[in-house]
Automatic annotation (TrEMBL):
It comes from Pseudolactococcus insecticola. This is Phosphoribosylaminoimidazole-succinocarboxamide synthase. The gene is purC. Residues 6-230 form the SAICAR synthetase/ADE2 N-terminal domain. SUPFAM superfamilies: SAICAR synthase-like. GO terms for biological process: 'de novo' IMP biosynthetic process; cobalamin biosynthetic process. Pfam families: SAICAR_synt. Belongs to the SAICAR synthetase family.
Length: 236
């Protein structure tokens, strides 16, 4: 599979067309952003780490029967993915209070939910990815009732698997964001990435092992992300 023209430039990765119309090449970049791009830094080695972490996790998701876009990792910073039309929703699952949930509702971080919570955000940088509900999703023609139900069910199934994967390396999966995409036949599969950039992971001492280290200026993310990769490599 050969890399061709740039298809999409994102904050953390670039997507390229390939000589196969059904396959795109994702190149993970050394860029960290927060606050919808208002905080931005180049961090050498971040692209490699996230590409390797997300490749390993998606391989495991595929193995456990989740339909994903992941085909194979082809270099330290690149992977091949099945081409999809991304559904413009950030599907967030929360197991434990943190981040924008704690802020919005004035609730301390670190309280486990009796059952995980699924939230939708409208993926739109100009609007700062607003929180939206099912009715909004339908009105905006983003997804049908059946698709909304499918997204929620899939997100919860993926939560169970990811919680188990991270528990094996002694990390608690606090929350995470997923993106899904449609294949030409209309079926929906998991796309984008799962990495410490898109999830909150706490160790046994409640240390942040994720992008909150960058967002909150708690230190260097490279050794933190490296720990996640090394742990996953030893276990999977
Ligand atoms: O900020 P918030 O608490 O809503 O984030 C919930 C989860 O979704 C976190 O794990 C965060 O890393 C992830 N997220 C993301 N991309 C965004 C917003 C949130 O990956 N644009």
């Amino acid at each position: 599979t050969e890399k061709r023209t740039l298809l999409y430039e994102g904050k953390a990765k670039n997507l390229y067309n390939t000589d196969d119309a059904t396959i795109v090449l994702a190149e993970y970049k050394d860029q960290a952003t927060a606050l919808n791009g208002k905080k931005k830094d180049q961090i050498a080695g971040k692209g490699e780490l996230n590409n390797q972490i997300t490749s390993l996790i998606f391989r495991e998701l595929n193995r456990r029967g989740v339909a994903t876009h992941f085909i194979e990792q082809i270099s330290k910073t690149e992977q091949l993915n099945t081409k999809v039309a991304i559904i413009p929703l950030e599907v967030v699952v929360r197991n434990v209070t943190a981040g924008s949930f704690s802020k919005r509702f004035g609730i301390a971080e670190g309280i486990a939910f009796p059952k995980p919570i699924v939230e939708f955000y409208y993926k739109n940088d100009d609007l700062d990815d607003p929180f939206i509900n099912d009715e909004h999703v339908k009105f905006l023609d983003i997804a049908t009732d059946d698709e909304i139900a499918f997204l929620k069910k899939s997100a919860l199934e993926i939560d169970t698997i990811l919680t188990d994967i991270f528990a094996k390396i002694d990390l608690t999966l606090i929350d995470f964001k997923l993106e899904f995409g449609r294949l030409p036949d209309g079926s929906i599969i998991l796309a984008d990435e799962v990495s410490p950039d898109t999830s909150r992971l706490w160790d046994a001492d409640n240390n942040h092992v994720d992008k909150d280290v960058y967002r909150r200026d708690l230190g260097d993310i490279i050794p933190v992300y490296q720990k996640v990769l090394t742990g996953l490599q030893a276990e999977f």
